[in-house]
Amino acid sequence: MNQYIRPARNAQKWSDQKAKLLIQFRNLTDKDLFFEAGRKHEMIMRISIKLGKPQEEIEKIFQAL
Asked: How many domains does the chain have?
């Protein structure tokens, strides 16, 4: 499973990763990175659309954090 998006299990780690993403991609907002359990795909889609990158690339960015 993807370890990078499990806020319920490790909220601090997600908070740190979210902060890195906000620095790396200044056009993202907290709303874009809002995570709800069971809705990871929706968040990935929001980010993909906002950055104009394929979903696969977004997932690779998350994994690299």
From this structure: 1
SS3 41: helix
* Per-residue pLDDT tens digits for 7-56: 445 666 888 889 999 999 999 999 999 888 888 899 999 999 999 999 99
1 within some domain: no
CB-CB contact of 20 with 28 (8 Å): no
Domain that includes residue 40, residue range: 11-64
Pair 28, 51: CB distance under 8 Å: yes
**Please, which residues have CB within 8 angstroms of residue 30's CB and are 6 or more apart in sequence?**
18, 22
User: What is the three-class DSSP state of 45?
Assistant: helix
Domain contains 34: yes
Per the confidence metrics, is the pTM higher than 0.85? no
